[in-house]
Amino acid sequence: MNRIFSGMQPTYALHLGNYLGALRNWVELQNQFESIFCVVDLHAITLPQDPKALLNNTREVAAAYIAAGIDPERNILFNQSYVAGHSELSWIFSCLTPLGWLNRMTQFKDKAGKNRDQAGLGLYAYPVLMAADILLYKATHVPVGEDQKQHLELARDIAGAFNRNYGRDVFPLPEPQIMGEATRVMSLRDGTKKMSKSDASDYSRINLTDDADAIAQKIRKAKTDPEPLPATIEELEARPEADNLVTIYAALEGTSRLDVLGRFAGAQFSGFKGELVDLAVAKLGPITAEMNRLMKDPAEIDRILRRGGERARAIAESTMAEVRDVVGLLRP
Length: 332
Ligand code: TYM
Prior knowledge:
binds ligand 1, 5 strands, mainly alpha
């Protein structure tokens, strides 16, 4: 049986990278797989969060999932902390995960910075909790952007370690699904840096909460070089900012970079950016409008998340019963 699990952190408004790298693919995949989509609030608190903002962001991420086209009836949509199994399985996995595996994780190095001794244990153990998220539901496929690849390899290693250690085939090895034209959307200010929620400059990203004016301003101010658009992918790839804008255009339109170059080769960026603004506003505007509509009724979003949480918990409890038996923990 195939099952999808994926999630996003409610740390800030979602951005175009989250949408093109992951969320849009989920919308497509929900028709092919049984799917579980999570708002990972326990991951969010690995860095300091204001409690009110965290709760609001959790609702906003759920609203973004629904506004982008995730059907909360057909799929399970819930927030991570609702199901205790995530934390329980994470502990069991941490007892099997060598420190050496975690020391290789580049995200921890990036997020902890120079102050490693001050970084929290949760930030270090973050990828183990992520493995627990996926394996608690025995998910076989995990649609994510390219930046999560290393974490997914660790999840596969942990699943293998558990199965080997207890001599039982409890967990499948989950497959990453890194799909589409825009698996790594870059900052609008620097084509060598990933578009990210934590970038200090709001001009580096397009948020799903941005209105048409903000989208237009950010795209017009996006860094480019003075050359017109090239005709070949090779020439494009030598120009990170140009490549990023062409990639965003292709992904929003559902075509390829080569298609886009076929139409715009030789054009100046000023003209191309105007077209990109129109396309981005046409594609993102309806999602933002629907998110705003949903956010007017937070109680309804909470009802959807709780209903999803109950359904998730039922699957999680059956996995945890099996895990307790295998590990030798008395069942409650
Ligand atoms: P998060 O919240 O940072 O990002 C959510 C999803 O968006 C993708 N993404 C991008 N894709 C393309 N270009 C970008 N610039 C970009 N930025 C973000 C991410 O790859 C991700 O798919 N650890 C995860 C959340 C998580 C999770 C899980 C995911 C927790 N448990 C279990 C899958 C399965 C994270 O921080 O994603």
